[in-house]
Design a protein that fits this description.
Pfam families: GAF_2. With 257 residues, this protein is an alpha+beta fold. The chain has 9 helices and 7 strands. The chain has a single domain (39-255), classed as Beta-Lactamase, CATH 3.30.450.40.
């Protein structure tokens, strides 16, 4: 696998995502038929998707996403994937530890926390705290989460295609203050985007009951991640390409060590 991005590919990506008109509801999709992948970046994501999407159900994909997050993110003690429904309801779609569901219940009760911040319409798609026990923006949730043994958290949000007010967030947690200092938030975003594509496949059906009809597309993962990087973090498309290249390469290397 090449470790340096292809400059021509980077320019194609920039043109592609630069075509979206300001305020347009939909982002341009990347073409990635298995016979003719459009770019080295798409091929890199296809390699990730071949493993993450190989399981046969939406629930299994989501579980694999959180399992991989817990293994590959330095300092992570557990991970959970949360759906933020319209109206603010939180539901835990997958978790590596029952505490993830408990933290979602706490966030629901306290009306604050990493999931709400990572999925805010006016946010950056990321939420991070080095120590929830002293986090000023989460005075209710943070102290209670600390009593559950969670001290630092990192959440990456993505906005689903199935419903304008329906979002998802992948959260990784550490039991130590600054326990996620070495974590790469962009790797968490890439994993969250894979989870979002699986949730989109489920539609309004509960993930544990949803089968995968059409093959899940790695190009949709790129689109989900790019819309956060460009639309919410304000990156130029060229810079978003670099982030996705580096994060997907880092994830593949750490996962397969």
């Amino acid at each position: 696998m090449d470790t340096e991005p292809d400059h021509a590919d980077r320019r194609r990506f920039a043109r592609h995502f630069g075509e979206r008109a300001p305020g347009a509801a939909h982002w341009p999709r990347v073409a990635d038929t298995r016979e003719q992948l459009w770019s080295p970046l798409a091929l890199q994501f296809a390699d990730l998707g071949r493993d993450l999407f190989a399981v046969g159900s939406v629930a299994a994909v989501l579980q694999l996403v959180v399992d991989v997050a817990a293994v590959t993110v330095p300092g992570a003690a557990m991970a959970g994937l949360t759906v933020h429904e319209a109206g603010g309801k939180l539901s835990t779609a997958a978790q590596t530890d029952a505490k993830a569901g408990e933290l979602d219940a706490l966030q629901q009760e306290c009306a604050e926390g990493p999931v709400a911040d990572a999925t805010r319409a006016d946010g950056t798609g990321l939420s991070y705290s080095t120590d929830v026990a002293t986090e000023p923006s989460w005075e209710r949730f943070g102290k209670r989460a600390a009593r559950h043994g969670i001290r630092s958290v990192l959440a990456a949000g993505v906005f689903l295609a199935t419903g304008a007010d329906r979002h998802a967030a992948l959260t990784v947690c550490s039991t130590e203050p600054r326990g996620l200092a070495a974590a790469d938030p962009d790797v968490v975003l890439v994993l969250a985007a894979h989870g979002a594509v699986a949730l989109d496949a489920a539609g309004e059906e509960e993930p544990e009951r949803a089968a995968i009809g059409e093959p899940l597309r790695s190009s949709d993962v790129i689109t989900r991640a790019a819309e956060v990087l460009i639309g919410k973090r304000g990156l130029e498309p060229e810079d978003a390409y670099d982030v996705l290249w580096r994060a997907s390469l880092s994830l593949a290397e750490s996962w397969r060590e």
